[in-house]
Structure prediction request, 305 residues.
Amino acid sequence: MTNERNEAAPANGAAAATILAVAIGGFVLGVCALAGDASPAIAHLLNVWNPTGPLSGVTALAIIAWLLSWFVLARAWSGRNLQLRRINLLALALISVGLLLTFPPFMDLLQGK
Amino acid sequence: MEITLRDAVTVVHGMFFGALLLLAFTGAGMGLYAVSAPVGRWNVTPAQQRWLSLYIALMALLAWLTVLLGAYAVYPWYRAHPPAGLTDLSGYPQRLLMSSPGTAQWHDLGMEWKEHIAWFAPLSLTAAAYLVARYGAHLHVLRPVRRALIRLLALAFLSAGVAGFFGAMLNKYAPVRGGPHIVLMHGDSHDE
Prediction:
């Protein structure tokens, strides 16, 4: 296996858009999960398919946010070279918050339960 | 030998799609490290690179199948409300767990976390599949992309692992069971 290729590496804009979009999707997932847990009115709004309950709305919104942000960011950053370390740090922060907001003891802590 | 329809769908969700996904992480981790390490990497052919891309894409597909089947087939059975006055809650797993202080946390912590965190796996694996397809041949020189890719894979493994662990434990304490019986094998009973 010695087929070394020497083409120039593609611009990292598409990678930045992909990485940040996942982070935005994960962050929206966490925020919606917390909002649905904290407020019965929001849980009712998130209940877009009754058998699955509010989870259907939480995940639908997260997927919409993920795909929409991926599309918008990819169009904006396509062919550009960006400071990917900064994007990675921002993505790491958003994903960490999103993950924390899905953790029930942390949700309860924020709501003072 | 029989199995109920709900058992069968739960088996496909957790033991087929979910477990296969968890097993696949070892191959993905080794493959990505081998082709993207800055020093001593494998110089793969374009065809081999495409196979690696396909492998990660199939993992993303498995993750999507797992969460969609879980959220839209198994979860509605899990959270179904029993009719008023029913005392046998075996067909209503969420209510069964919540009926005892010894099992309530399996729902309050286990299911409440699992139902949300699991969705990080398909999102991050879809992104990882795209990054490998787009940048695979250049990952060894694109350090920030390589690091992000490994983190996405780790995030997917963490979320799939948490969901898989709680899924298995929940099904031990309150199995999702019911619906038509599917006969897997006919046979006589043998008393030894």
User: Anything to note?
Assistant: The helical segments of chain B are 5-36, 46-78, 93-98, 104-117, 120-135, 143-173.
